[in-house]
Amino acid sequence: MEPVIQLKDVRKVYVMGHEKIIALNNITLTFEREKIYCLLGTSGSGKSTLLNLIAGLEKPTKGSITIANRHIEKMSENQLAKFRQANIGFVFQSYNLLPTLTALENVTLPLIFKKIPKRVRIKRAKEMLKAVGLANRAKHKPSEMSGGQQQRVSIARAFINDPSIVFADEPTGNLDTKTTAEMMELITSIARNNKQTLIIVTHDLEISKYADTIIHIQDGMVDKIYDVQKNDEVLQTKENEQAGQVLQTQDSEQTGEVLQAQDNEQTGEVLQAQDNELIGEVLRTQESEPK
Ligand SMILES: Nc1ncnc2c1ncn2[C@@H]1O[C@H](COP(=O)(O)OP(=O)(O)OP(=O)(O)O)[C@@H](O)[C@H]1O
Ligand SMILES: [Mg+2]
Question: Which of 11, 16, 33, 154 would staple 2 via disulfide (CB 3.0–4.6 Å)?
Answer without folding.
Answer: 33
